[in-house]
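User: tokens in, sequence out, please.
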């Protein structure tokens, strides 16, 4: 996986938060993104998806979510709790 270039960060979140094995985590993320399992590692497929969903890309796009905004969208997309997101929301 290529981290934020593809879906490695999303798969890692599922492994950490839900204690999923890698194959299970990949299948979950692919289902949530509505893409084929093989497309998870394809930068050309993942970049437009990440931009559309606002879950962050390596080289930022003007006006697109970055930092905590992107993390909030990741938490919502994957139905997980991310501590920094929860902390941020509690301070609003």
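Assistant: Sequence out:
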């Amino acid at each position: 996986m290529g981290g934020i270039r593809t879906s490695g960060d999303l798969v890692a979140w599922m492994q950490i938060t839900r204690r999923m094995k890698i194959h299970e985590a990949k299948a979950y993320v692919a289902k949530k993104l509505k893409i084929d399992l093989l497309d998870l590692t394809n930068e050309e497929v993942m970049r437009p998806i990440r931009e559309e969903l606002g879950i962050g890309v390596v080289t930022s796009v003007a006006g697109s979510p970055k930092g905590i905004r992107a993390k909030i969208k990741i938490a919502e997309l994957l139905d997980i709790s991310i501590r920094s997101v929860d902390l941020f929301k509690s301070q609003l």
